């Protein structure tokens, strides 16, 4: 039986991409259907020193659900504006409703929590909450 399974590089890559796409669509579908969701943001660096934004989502509906929503690459800088733009692109790319976002949790870094130019302040201004 093992002789009939194709293990070529292209086949494995295609299958991993299909599984990844399926997982992303299921997470997005669940978050879209829930009443409210919360976000947890963490800016970090990978092994090559490239800055990345990890966006975790926590939903409470009939069930409690928590998972990694997206891992976004920050192109050049890690200012509050850069983080907010990537977060905005992430949520809008998944067609998530901003009104359902009831809280945001961060590590407290200045780029996240700055009163005027922090990612959270920019998010509050964008969705019209203070």
TrEMBL record:
Read off the lineage from the record: Eukaryota, Metazoa, Ecdysozoa, Arthropoda, Hexapoda
* PANTHER family (UniProt xref): EPM2A-INTERACTING PROTEIN 1, GENERAL TRANSCRIPTION FACTOR II-I REPEAT DOMAIN-CONTAINING PROTEIN 2A-LIKE PROTEIN
Annotated organism of origin: Parnassius apollo
What is the recorded name of this protein? (apollo) hypothetical protein
The highest taxon in the source lineage is Eukaryota
């Amino acid at each position: 039986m093992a002789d009939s399974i194709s293990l070529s590089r292209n086949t494995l890559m295609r299958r991993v991409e299909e599984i990844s796409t399926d997982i992303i669509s299921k997470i997005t579908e669940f978050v879209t259907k829930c009443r409210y969701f919360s976000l947890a943001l963490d800016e970090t660096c990978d092994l090559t020193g490239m800055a990345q934004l990890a966006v975790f989502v926590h939903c409470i509906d009939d069930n409690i659900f928590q998972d990694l929503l997206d891992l976004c690459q920050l192109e050049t800088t890690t200012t509050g504006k850069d983080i907010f733009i990537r977060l905005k692109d992430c949520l809008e790319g998944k067609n998530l409703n901003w009104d359902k976002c009831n809280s945001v949790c961060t590590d407290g870094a200045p780029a996240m929590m700055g009163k005027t130019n922090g990612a959270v302040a920019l998010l509050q201004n964008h969705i019209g909450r203070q």
